[in-house]
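Example record

The entry below shows one chain as it appears in the dataset: sequence first, then structure tokens.
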Amino acid sequence: MRELAATGAPIRVPVVVACRVLKLSPQGYYKWRKSPVTQRDWDDAHLIDAALAAHVKDPEYGYRLISDELNDAGYQASENRVARLCSVQGIFASHAKKRGKKSNPGPAPHDDLLAYVDEHGRTRHDFTASAANEKWLTDISEHPSR
């Protein structure tokens, strides 16, 4: 917007018009123009530098120990803030637990002897028996599955 509003630009667009098109407030633009880096971003950058220094000193440190180190060094930061900054920067303890993917269930242990395909191509089951001890069923709902 600064280039569009410059007096030497080929096509001069007022800041108010550019802000309206971009759906920004002119006050917010002028505030950003006065100070493009917020105080929180500035403080976060210093905390990240200190956290990286603590992590280089001892790579086994996770965000909790890094938070303690920062507080001992005089920085005022909550554990949640340090956790967020460490996560953004990829600072993790060297012994962090790696979570793997859940394994897919294997093939069915037995063939489904009651299944058949109907005239519409859908799989159906026939649970009727003409005599005793012909078809046996069991309930395995107590076993976790998808």
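Notes for this example: The chain has six helices and two strands. The radius of gyration is 32 Å.
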